[in-house]
Amino acid sequence: MTESGSRLENLLIYRNILNDNIVKGLRSPGGQGTPGNQYAIGARLIEWAEINQVAGNIPENYLLTLIGTDENIFSRVAGQAGVRAGSSLVQAAAHDVVILKEMFKAGIARGLGAEVNAVIEDYRPVSGVQGSRQAGLQNLSLLRALFLDVAASPAPAAVVKALSGYYNRYGCGRLAGYYAFKWDAEQRELAGIGHTDPVQLSDIIGYEYQKAELVRNTEAFMSGKPANNVLLVGARGTGKSSSVKAVVNRYADQGLRIIEIAKADFKQIPEIMKILRQWGQKFIVFIDDLSFEEYEAEYKILKSLIDGGVEVRPDNVLIYATSNRRNLIKETWDDRDGSELHRQDTVNEKISLADRFGVTLFYALPNQEEYFKMVEAIARKNRIDLPREELRSAALRWEMSHSGRSGRLAQQFIDYLGGNIAN
Predict the structure, then answer these.
(1) Which residues span the domain enclosing 134?
(2) Residue 44: enclosing H or E segment and its boundaries?
(3) Residue 279: helix, strand or coil by DSSP?
(4) Each residue of 300-335: pLDDT tens digit?
(5) 106 neighbors 2 (Cβ within 8 angstroms)
(6) Is residue 201 located within the same domain as residue 349?
(7) Could you read off the pLDDT of 5-44 as tens digits, one per residue?
(8) Which end of the chain is more exposed for a tag (fewer CB within 10 A), N or C?
């Protein structure tokens, strides 16, 4: 970067960019007392591109990613409630847009020299390597149109308006950087998950009604219409968790986020809701394998959240939970002792949590024919070409030597079969 690089010092909103080590290097590629520093910068950009499977002009894409995920006063306000046109904050953001567009126009990596630029200005990462599914990297085309589309050349005010909508949809900071999160109870913060399960709804064989209901409910939620918390009940391996992950993958590019919470962290649910309430994005709070022993009382926290206690569930949050049993709280013989009134109150208290979910979807174990169809469908997807009867016969033997029928078992059988065929 030449004169345009020095202009970065005049940024008002996006000053975090100045602290990025690669940007520092791009601004003074021959500096830091190392004549070959431009090669070190190029190496770091190549590493970033390979880890994240990013193609094209890597310096430009790197800077666009910083802009798209930067957590500053403008992106925070826009991500939470939107920014009012004509405000001084919009004026400050427009000032920065002018500087950033000048920098892109001048050529970000010109100072790195022809040898390095020959590699990084039209980079092609190694194919077949799954990169990070960071959300910010999936939206580079949107940001490129704002800052680098010469034909359209949107005015700074138009770019700011589009950026405001971008942050309102995708968030900023970690929320813009990831689709999936886990609650870090020790740090009391959301921890982004870089490598998530890429499962799609089409990968889950059968359960068409259940998948359609999950999609319908999620679409209503994304559209701002009334939607329900969902409980997915069924035996292990039937695709309950995969269905939730798949529906989030389907709507992730529309701003849907998933946050997995462990039962041990239920006491921090009010704190989690306080964080999520601040943002404009939609969140699925995912609780996998939800159940309680008779001595556990954490279910009351979840019940209060769903019912709307003192800390009501935010409008931008739904709870999707899976369980292996319909009655989420284990009932004991002690519950049946005592007076009729006491017994009924105890039983009602323990079964009422499941009733709090507006939608309950049952994932039954497949019958024999459904299991065979799962095996055949997964075999086709994996390009395993065996005579139908031979495939079914082998699948039956696999089933009998394992723990019954399920979609997971069918997948494990095909994995085993594929490994043997390959050998």
Answers:
(1) 3-177
(2) helix 37-52
(3) coil
(4) 777 777 766 556 788 999 999 999 876 666 655 455
(5) yes
(6) yes
(7) 568 899 999 999 999 999 988 877 654 445 568 899 999 9
(8) C
Give yes or no for a contact between 249 and 180, defined as CB atoms under 8 angstroms apart: no
Among candidate residues 321, 336, 363, the one where a domain is terminated = 363
Tokens 């950087």 found at:
177
- Same domain membership, residue 240 and residue 121: no
Residue 137's closest CA among 184, 170, 97?
170
Return the amino acid letter for 144: R
Verdict on whether the full-model pTM lies above 0.70: yes
Which amino acid, 152? A
Q: Which of 144, 159, 138, 148 is nearest to 93 (CA)?
A: 159
The two tokens of residue 221 are 């939620």
> What span, in angstroms and rounded, lies between the C-alpha atoms of 125 and 51?
9
Domains of the chain: total = 3
Check which CATH number belongs to the domain holding 207 and give it: 3.40.50.300
Nearest to 375 by CA among 405, 402, 404, 400: 405
Both structure tokens of 222: 């994304």
| Residue 235 phi, psi dihedral angles, 5° rounding | -70, 160
Give the DSSP H or E segment for 390. helix 388-400
d(CA 138, CA 198): 14
Reported residue count of the chain is: 423
Tell whether 276 and 390 lie within a shared domain: no
